[in-house]
Amino acid sequence: MGRARPLTRHTSGEHGRARASWVTVGGMQDAPRVVGLVGVYDADGGLVGEARYVVGHLLGLADCALCDITHSPVRRKPAWDRMVAGLGVAFRLRHRNELADQPAVAAAVRSVGLPLVLARLDDGAVRPVLDRTALARLDGSVAAFDAELRAAVAAAGWAWPDPGTPGALARAPLAG
């Protein structure tokens, strides 16, 4: 079985994003590669939004399974930061009111619901990976999230960047 390699890189598509043209070697095209991940909380950002979520969560009126995975009651979990550092791609966290500059992410949220984890693929596509139901099953566990994320990416037929690829381990600052 052959492996596809990028033939050329050119700029096209929405916002002038670089897209890869692929050549098939040995009759098999390479799987799309995950080049980034976006998690969207079912909560608003900002001081008021976060305070509203904390109070609502304590009263049992607000729930966000992704929040439970990434944060303890007082701060982001160190285990989360370690897991993200080992992925080899940027993982950005956004609140539901922080999507104005992310139209593809906002469209996925409208279609699938919140909370949600999305993959950005090397062909420019943004695809759902873990939805509300999948995240809720993880019961706040970072280790379970890591395993489920990797299993979902494999089940979708996507690949992670090769560790030797320039930029494969480059990470954007985490937001959240």
Outline the secondary-structure elements:
Elements: E1 5-11, E2 18-23, E3 34-41, H1 46-58, H2 65-70, H3 78-85, E4 90-95, H4 103-112, E5 116-121, E6 126-130, H5 132-137, H6 142-155
Features:
single chain, 176 residues, alpha+beta, Glutaredoxin, 2 domains, 4-stranded mixed β-sheet, two-stranded antiparallel ribbon, disordered N terminus, disordered C terminus
Structure characterization notes:
There is one protein chain. The chain has 176 residues and is α+β, with helices and mostly antiparallel strands. It has two domains: 1-29, no CATH class; 31-155, 3-Layer(aba) Sandwich (Glutaredoxin). It is built from six helices and six strands. The N and C termini lie far apart (41 Å). The relative contact order is 0.19.
